[in-house]
Amino acid sequence: MSNQNLRRDEAAARAALITTHSYDVSLDVRLAADPNIAGYTSRSVISFSASEPGASTFVDFIADSVHSVFLNGKGLPVADVVDGSRIRLENLEPENQVTITGTALYSTSGEGMHRFVDPADGQCYLYTQYEPADARRVFANFEQPDLKAEFTFHVMAPSDWQVSSNGAEVLRTQLTSDPATSRWDFAPTQAMSTYITTVLAGPYFKAEDAWSGTLGDGTVLDVPLALYCRASMAASFDADALFSLTKNGLAYFNELFDFPYPWGKYEQAFVPEYNLGAMENPGLVTFTESYVFTSRAADSQYQARANTLLHEMAHMWFGDLVTMKWWDDLWLKESFADYMGTLGVDRTTDWDTAWVNFANNRKAWAYVQDQLPTTHPIVADIPDLEAAKQNFDGITYAKGASVLKQLVAYVGFEAFIAGSRQYFRDHAYGNTTLAELLAALSAASGRDLGEWARQWLQTSGISTLSCEITGHGDALGAVAVLQDAVDPTTGRQEPRPHRLRIGLYDFDDAGALVRTNSVETDVSGARTDVTDLSGTPRPALLLINDDDLSYAKVRLDPHSEATVRGSLDKLKDPMARALCWTALWDSARDAVTPASRYVDAVQRFGPAETGIGVLLNVLGNASTAVERYVPRGQRDAVRRGFLTTAAEQLQAAAPGSDQQLAWARTLAATSRYDASRLDLLRGILDGSTVIDGLAVDAELRWNLWHGLAANGQATPEQLDQELARDNTAAGKSGHATALAARPEASVKAAAWEAAVHGTGLSNQLLSATIAGFNTGSASLLAGFIDPYFESLEQVWAGRSIEIASRIVRGFYPAGQDLDGHGGTPETNAVIVRTDHWLADHPDAPRALRRIIIEQRSHLHRALKAQALTAPALSA
Quick one: which of 94, 93, 95, 67 has its CA closest to 81? Predict the structure, then answer.
């Protein structure tokens, strides 16, 4: 029986009983390059105290086999003490030492010790990824965040590899009996949680540097730096730029937090097939290697990478130095790091659009998540590890960061930082809950933040703000801000306090739309009168939440919306323009205005959008609107118009510009569902059509092949030839996607079988196969609806939660359209089938049900948007 899903009450009971002191962990990965070797020897020596002598507890270890267990020098019978993923320890003494040796398994799912073979050169690479609870897949431990300890790692690996861990390397010894193998010994760490320990091993390319900084008290801090990537990617590795970002960040955060960087060295590794953007392992941060740009990347992608780098660096204090006791308070680290990552880009780099991209991108993620029926308070209820795994979402990250931005506006930046500094000093190397943070911030600001926390951190849902304007002619009469704030989880109105600005914009003599006035006000309750605006000239645009201080959706008043839809390109302020784009998108998503009107706005004003991050976002939104929100009867015409604009702008954009790249990507993506521009795609691929300045590199080539394959215009032989010229990890992913995109029933069946029933796909190739499978008409995929629901329980029980989640989410039949002949979203066949499954499986795992409920909500939203303008439904 599986007992991997640790419950919160079990963790609390264990933490009340034991105190962990130290781990000594040895891993032997010398044979990792042999594909026939499934696992490696793992040995943990754990020293811990027990508050109740004679009591019992358990150690976590998800192993292939356990060889031996010694408690306080006495060997325990393995068959008696090993129970699934737990090893029982009984008759504890006040001070204890347990030694557990076993065989752990290499992973291809990105959980635990991930093993990857580079197709470019056949080299084997290893790295670990644990959050929230996969360290137990690598070594035996007490797997919960509040049982911190010091960790000492020893690794046996091939002598010509690079090996690293959290602590500094203190000794490397080549074995006399086997010169091809060496043993690496690393220094003990400071106290930390199990989930942020890490090991890296393989023939990685390594670059080295150092940073020195003088602290406020005159102390000089010396921090060794290193960067890693796969050897085959070294030519694309811009180490100098990454070191520069790292040094600027360390200088800024050391001064800002007034607490010296606590982890000795600072290394960063860019690793293959990573499930996350990055992970904040102290001393050795890991990142997805998609941040090593082997193909042309837009400026916004470099900025996003810088944001992630600084996000993880902020974690060295928020999350690593001070850690939440349990996953309910995951936001304590993620929300702060998300906020600090954007702040760091804004304060330490030359980019001046950090908060614009945060408003247009990160907050958009939160807005989507917060409108799902499964949304949750920022301070969430996390009863077990499966629930924790699902909560690394837009609420925990982006909404939490948005609320912190609102808190900064509420208490002031200086008070916010002063409270954070005291928080670090009071709880260094410890664990906390919300109460400790609020105490520090309240003391620093002089404000009681209890009610603020209740309204912002302990409720769910997003406020929608709109303006009620009375008066006629050229002057504003009475102006009020209306707040609609229904908590989706309770159905109650939960109006929140907002400190925000209302911007007034008019046309200047040159025809530009510029801010002429701004009013800062506090909004609370369902209605707030703004007396400062009464009697002022009516502006062309009245923008609530100007400068994006608060977290809320905004509805434009009719006069302002008309201005935006007619003159969005005249709005010069990048933040104001991004907020207006967001208001138009929210209106389309919420079925307030037809989705085709959003696509029209993108066609009309997208070519003039100078912010590449905003442009990429609105082009992606337009693609979603076309394929999901526009009614089926209108979709071909709307898509054809959008595709025409993309083709025209590809030719019209400045050669070599980011805008040209954005339109090229849009052309390829939209062509997957329309064959009218396939000659252009093929011409770009074979070189017969030359677009001045366009870099037709590997990433773009695979996007073009995806478009051709989805229309049946790419054979397996052609795709194999393309793979031969790009035999890289990214190339294999593009190849898998294009193969599965071909519009043939047998192709879709093979992709389904490989992903759902097979186990041969790594995490990256699984995602690629799912993406290709879903590139197909609703009719082609309709035959998989029943098999999908019939397979859910088997998939969830038989696969790791990471892989199961990808399959359940990725294969949900979300591409189905509104039923014709007077059908409604509620009568759609997939909606009905989903409702039946949920009703028939009330006791299915909570995390599984959450995914299904969320996917249903996304589909239902799309169907509602289609219903808004569907001719058959208008009667």
Answer: 67
- Going from the C-alpha of 326 to that of each of 18, 191, 388, the distances in angstroms are 16, 16, 9
Give the model's confidence band at 870: pLDDT under 50 very low, under 70 low, under 90 confident, else very high.
low
Residue 26 CA to residue 157 CA, distance in Å, equals 11
- Helices 801-810 and 846-869 cross at an angle (nearest 10°) of 20
Burial 787-809 (b: 16+ CB within 10 A, else e): ebbebbeebbeebbbbbbbbbbe
What's the rounded Cα separation, in Å, for the pair 498 and 521? 8
SS3 403: helix
State yes or no: cis peptide before 132, omega within 30 of 0. yes
Rounded CA-CA distance 860/813 in Å is: 12
Cα–Cα distances in angstroms (integers) from residue 84 to residues 80, 250, 386, 665, in the given order: 11, 43, 17, 48
Please tell me the pTM assigned to this model. Answer: 0.94
242 and 268 Cβ atoms separated by less than 8 Å: yes
The catalytic residue among 143, 280, 312, 334 is 312
Dihedral sign for Cα atoms in the order 621, 623, 625, 629 = negative
The two three-digit tokens of residue 51, written as one number: 């508050």
Q: Are 162 and 204 in contact (CB under 8 A)?
A: yes
Q: Each residue of 231-265: pLDDT tens digit? A: 999 999 999 999 999 999 999 999 999 999 999 99
| Residue 312 is a catalytic residue | yes
**The two three-digit tokens of residue 369, written as one number:** 């998540």
- Distance of alpha carbon 28 from alpha carbon 43, whole angstroms: 9
Token representation of residue 662: 């954005």
99, two tokens: 């030694």
Tell me the β-bridge partners of 207: 227
Supply 429's token pair: 């190397």
- CB-CB contact of 299 with 142 (8 Å): no
User: Which residue has tokens 């709307």?
Assistant: 638
Tell me the pLDDT tens digit for each residue of 146-160: 999 999 999 999 999
Helix (H) or strand (E) holding 683: helix 678-686
